[in-house]
Amino acid sequence: FDRWWEFLTDDPREANTEGGVFPVVFGTVLLTILLSIIVVPLGVLAALYLREYAKQGVVTSLLRIAVNNLAGVPSIVYGVFGLGFFCYTLGAYVDAGPGEATQLPVFRWWFLVAAGMAVVLIATAFGLFALRKPGEPETQRNKVLRTLAATAWITAFGLLAALLVTTPYFHGFFEARLPDPTFGKRGLLWASLTLALLTLPVVIVSTEEAIAAVQPSLREGSYGCGASKWQTIRRIVLPGAAPGILTGMILAMARGAGEVAPLMLVGALKWAPELPVSLEAPFLHLDRSFMHLGFHIYDLGFQSPDSEAARPLVWASTLLLLAVVLLLNLVAITLRARIRKRMGSGHF
After folding, report:
1. Backbone dihedral region of 140: left (phi > 0), alpha (psi from -120 to 50 degrees) or beta?
2. Percent of the chain having pLDDT more than 70?
3. Over 60: is that where the pLDDT of 1 sits?
4. Lowest CB count within 10 Å: 67, 110, 162, 310, which one?
5. Average pLDDT rounded to a whole number, residues 316-337
6. Of the candidates 274, 272, 256, the residue with the CA atom closest to the CA atom of residue 321
7. Spatial separation of the C-alpha atoms in residues 203 and 244, rounded to whole Å
8. Does domain 2-75+190-345 have CATH number 1.10.3720.10?
9. What is the model's pTM?
């Protein structure tokens, strides 16, 4: 037991072939928690839109096919995307703002602002004119105006993105630290976002199935009592689908905790000198790199200078990774069981 305590609480030494795995376990657990916090709200919102708000047709079917296909994309592709978009594009923007090549002159930028405001006004007008009076059937005019309003809103969001990319007033949050990047490099935040994208299809599919399984009579009873659609979703649909949502979270946690290929590109290191959490503000340092059990096992098994001597550590680290995933899943399963019990007793 003394050796196990040393293994769990000490830092790695001698190229990770001696010592413990405390920062490795800490990084794995923190990454899994962060990806769960990110992926569950995104997955629930996407599933709610597809099931409750989107008009069932060709476009919605294509979206569902795209979500299912994303579940089969190799994880290394997500890693390359995370490195290129999150680390080198979005991170560089956070550090230094838009580059000189993309910045617009002040007059042209304000002209773009005026154009965006005009598009917003047009989209609002189309949306108001597309509304039909109570009791009247929907006409072709309503459909055309609604389509024009949706197109105008998409254009407005595109102009907003262009304004952010070309603004001459933003020079980054960490310009004083350049040329050393703060967020424009591999780090915990970008690794969490990359794994959230990787596991998002799992959460969307499981949440949508859970929403579809809610009894129609409950919805009808809610509408009969005068509740609005959002009130019905918030008080009837989401509580009823909560066990299925947690099932998706469990699957996402299990897959995210065991991934290695994308983490090699967006954040995991052989040795991280500092933990992502410290007593210094902001306490949670999302820009720092971290150590991960999956990458640690790969490094011990295939990159160690003495693979034979590191073999016991490989087996011990593998067993520890399985135990960490099992423990996180047990916590989520326990929470799911309590929610089901509350639903059965009528507390919802």
Report:
1. alpha
2. 95
3. no
4. 110
5. 84
6. 256
7. 9
8. yes
9. 0.85
Q: What is the C-alpha separation between 30 and 32, in angstroms, rounded?
A: 5
Beta strands in 183-293 (DSSP E): none
- Kindly state the average pLDDT of the residues 69-98: 90
Averaged over 27-37, what is the pLDDT? 90
Across 29-63, b (16+ Cβ under 10 Å) vs e yields ebbbebbbebbbeebbebbbebbeeeeeeeeeeee
- pLDDT category at 347 given cuts 50, 70, 90 is very low
Cross-strand partners of 322? none
d(CA 144, CA 295): 53
Sign of the dihedral defined by the CA atoms of residues 267, 28, 320, 23, in that order: positive
Tens of pLDDT, residue by residue over 235-281, are 888 888 888 888 888 888 888 888 888 988 998 888 887 888 888 88
* 100-120: pLDDT as tens digits: 888 888 999 999 999 999 999
Q: Residue 138 gets which letter from DSSP?
A: P
* Positive/negative CA dihedral, 261, 262, 268, 269: positive
Amino acid residing at 303: Q
**116 within 8 A of 156, measured Cβ to Cβ:** yes
Contacts of residue 326, defined as CB under 8 A and 6 or more positions apart, other chains included, come to: none
Cβ proximity of 281 and 201 under 8 Å: no
Kindly report whether the peptide bond that precedes residue 12 is cis, defined as omega within 30 degrees of 0.
Answer: no
Q: Domains of the chain: which residue ranges?
A: 2-75+190-345
- H helix and E strand count, the chain: 14, 2
- Beta-carbon contacts of 95 under 8 Å, excluding residues fewer than 6 positions away, are 172, 173, 174, 175, 177, 178, 181, 182, 183, 184
Q: Whole-number mean pLDDT of the chain?
A: 85
Which residues are CB-contacts of 232 (< 8 A; sequence separation ≥ 6)? Answer: 219, 222, 223
Angle 140-166/106-130 helices, nearest 10 degrees? 160
Find how far residue 119's CA is from the centre of its chain. 30
